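Lab intake sheet, docking and co-folding queue.

SAMPLE TYPE: protein with bound small molecule
LIGAND NAME: pyridoxal-5'-phosphate
LIGAND FORMAT: SMILES
REQUESTED OUTPUT: full 3D complex as structure tokens
PRIORITY: normal
SUBMITTED BY: R.K., bench team

The fields below were copied directly from the construct record.
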Amino acid sequence: MQLPSNKIRLQQLGSTLFNSYAIDVLRLDLIHPVVSGNKWFKLKYAIQAALQLNKKAIATFGGAYSNHIVAAAYACKQAGLQSIGIIRGEKSTTPSPTLQAAQQYGMQLHFVSREAFKNKETCKQSFDVGTYCINEGGYSTEGMLGASEILQVIDTSSYTHIICSCGTGTMMAGLINAALPHQSIIGISALKGHTGLESDIKKLLPQHKQQQPFTLFHDYHFGGYAKHPPILIDWMKQLWQQENLPTDIVYTSKLLYAVKDLCTKNSFDKNSKLLIVHSGGLQGNQSLPINTLPF
Ligand SMILES: *Cc1c(COP(=O)(O)O)cnc(C)c1O
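RESULT FIELD (auto-filled):
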């Protein structure tokens, strides 16, 4: 799977929104319009493993708006693997833009009840030996190792703080794994009350990184996963107008809001150099009514 790393760049935030802190955004969203930024990294080694094991297909799990599902479909198509998506919930008469894109990339979709979806082991047993299973959200050691390469795409050694959004925490585990000793890694959870996140992240870290400190914030979910009240939409418009930065409703808008809030509260030393990882996800905005956003 070829990473179009030449498209990734750093964007400096220059407006007054962030209390004069030095902040750059690592624009992983520029990799591809549909395949969200961090997903390339998280899928890389799983796809490689499937190919090495001579598997013919990949099966993975997600909801109707899952960035992981569409990224897996695209990555499989590129790698010459079949793809199967186990989708939570009833099949709707109008499939989400995410699922439509996944199907376009050749993914076979299976809709299962919420109950059956919880029982992933049973689902997995229904696949033959030629199928390689990837967890929901790409949560795996392979995913963590791929995400460890995010900080190598561009020289990021001078940053004191690296701040990212968390779903499963796989990307953050990779960032912790790859961080230099002087760098603090901070995660903003996109889920409400995700109390297992810290231990989920630790489980992915190699033995010698288990004691590595990191910080998580759980108060920037705006009501819960994928919830997007009008104040969040207003914030996204403001970011676009003042910084020319597009964000998504599930992850990166909440991440940027958290950074603004922490900067306003002077939570960092004034000499800090912050790096925000823009992990992509913009295709998810297609689920909003048309013209909700100016980008
Ligand atoms: C999937 C996703 C995340 C969450 O990544 P995890 O590794 O599951 O924590 C964050 N941001 C965007 C845009 C995503 O699509």
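REVIEWER NOTE: DSSP finds ten helices and ten strands in the chain.
SIGN-OFF: pending second check by T.M.
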